[in-house]
Design goal:
- By secondary structure, the chain is α+β, with helices and mostly antiparallel strands.
- Strands 8, 9, 10, 12, 15 and 17 form a six-stranded antiparallel β-sheet that branches.
- It is globular, with a radius of gyration of 29 Å.
- It starts with a helix and ends with a strand.
Length: 797
Amino acid sequence: MFVVSALIYPCVLSLLCIGAGLLVDHVSGTWLPGMLLPIVGAATLIAVSQLSTYTVLAAPATPYALAIVAAAGIALGWARISALAHEWRRHRWQPAVLVLAYLVALAPVLAAGRPTFSSFGILDDSAFHLLGADYLIRHGQDYAHLDLRNSYGQYLNAYYATGYPSGADTLFGGSAFILGAPLIWTMQPFNAFMLASATGPMWLLVRRTGLAGGWCALATLTATVPALVYGYELVASVKEIVALGLILALGALVVLHPRWLRRGAAGAIPFATMLAGGVATLGVGFGAWALAAVLVLAAIAAGEIRAGRRRARESLGALALAAAIVLAGSLGTWTGLSRSVHVATGIASSTNPGNLHAPLHVAQVFGTWLTGSYANLPTGAHLPVSYAIVAITLLAAGLGALRVFYLGEYALLGWIALMIAVGLGLQVFAGTWVGAKALLITSPVIVLLAWSGFAALRHASGRWALRAAIPLALLLAGGIAVSDAMQYHSSNLAPTARYDELASVNARFAGHGPMLYGGFDEYALYQLRDLDVGGVDFMHPPAGIALMGGHGYPVDLDRVPASAWPAYPLVLTRRDPIASEPPSAYRLQWQGTYYQVWARRPGAPAAIAHLGLASTRPVRCAAVGGLARIAAARGAQLVAAVPPRRVTVALATGEHPRWRYTHPGLVLSGAGRLQTAFDLPYADAWNIWLKGQLMPAVSVSVDGRRVGSLGGQLDGNPHNPDALTPLRVGLAAGRHRLTIARGGFSLAPGDGGWAILHEIVLTPADAPDVDKLEVISPARWRTLCAGRFDWIEVVRG
């Protein structure tokens, strides 16, 4: 699957986009530069997929529609392909920079060598885009039949049925469905490809500053992946990454206006296609960014009309055709315009910062930010170094603006000025969330200006300028490269094996839901999409179940109301030696490496009363007596869940370096060892369970003997102490010493990711790791006093 998702899929996507780009090039007069073909093709396919998914009947044909459009373009543009192939030596830097950008963008996944994605636990919006991309291709933009009783239907309704833009999702879903590849593993390659396609317009913009060859390639690459853009790509911010390429392409088309503005209405087709794709991707909010290009073109067209070089009738014809393309290519946005406007204004004015603890710093727009996350401030010496590079980049950008003016590139200068004005306006008047995205979209433009400053120095006649040019280039490229490398190092990669097991659960039990999900991981909504999932602590919990710990917090099944259980024939829980299990009406149906599926017994009565207990403490007689009175009055029985034997290993008394305890647990913030002791009551084979979040690998040893290593196992977010895969070891009775060691710095992706240890527990390896149920009559309730149970229920029958 790794080869299919990371290598074959982007090749298929590139053929689709280039083919569609060739089709647009053909109908508009064959004038598009080769570097614009992928992004123009992507916009075209977004428009096509929006039309095909507009009705439920046509939606499943979307992959075929995309393939037909691409094939038609390749057939009509075969002569263009042959000409480009014969001139490959002259254009060799152009495809090279596109491939390099893809490799940089997908670096964490490629280095991991497995299908995964790097947005895990940082921005869960990508989980909903998976849902949307799958649903839209299967069912189209029809949400009337969604079941809103569970999380699956509620999420789709809350996002897509309210006017949320879906252009990026329909292109993503339609292209991935061609290969039949799981969307969860093609999501990051899709984002990486779309960011790489933005190098096309950026190349053309950089060339206007006078750079060529290798210098143009370096400037293009770094201007396309500055720190903030790279950070958003790593967290799969699909709408913004797709929109970025479209916005840059609008700028490139503005600069290239002499090629097409006088060609008549057909010449405007590529520009209109970019507008259609952008509106479908970002909704009406795209208009703010499109305005920069539209205003410059309007000024140019007005000037040509006044000079007599263009007739007003020609402009009106081009405008009418462009309007038709924009309306058709983003039809869903316009037919639900009031909802689209409501979504755009709601997002722009929202005070909800999303995954940001504070507004981003304006300095981040300059491309360098020496920290592992764009959401954090650099620490230590990284902060003054970051600001020093920012200051130099600012000076270079100012010099670059003068260079653009000196070259007479007034259309480019006007577009850049308006882009910066839009970005500053959104910073001042919009909320934290939109302000951050404004910085993201503006950042490549600022870095482009800085490279224009380098071009000014390189082409200057003075020796001092030539001496300053190379250090400036090294500073610009080096600052961005180091910033991106730090984010690569801190990325959290999705646990491949666990998600594959979720997919197997979906295949095994499909159609037998609804299923109550006893964990927190919103990507499970996609992996379990055929089971009508309800997530207890999801943002949209099932109907009748209020948020317990809060969105994203650990789930306590003991707090699920008794009246809610009968609606769920299936319950999915993590294998966890400490977590409470479902009520007595359920029996273990299936168990994998990570999950357990519980099925409700046919006709099983709901519990009359349920008392959740902390199995680490003896139950009080007063609590048991109260349940016994209820049972006696109802003619019912007491059912007690007896947990397997557990041995808890103390973390607080262990020896370790200056690792710190935080709310989730012990943060293994660097290389070091945790050493602690525990006692076993008898000799046996034992499972060692580590509960926590471990992206970097740690080694586990007992009495100096290495038991194994654990890493790349994450679930939900840092506040969820989930059990990792158990390690089996044979041990004698008595005292033992446990050592958990984290190695030093490595180049492995995610080596700087989450490393949090909550608890360590041992259980007998050959004993069932599920509770044993004991049925007690109300008259014998005192036998339960001072016992250790996960829960006690009152059940009739």
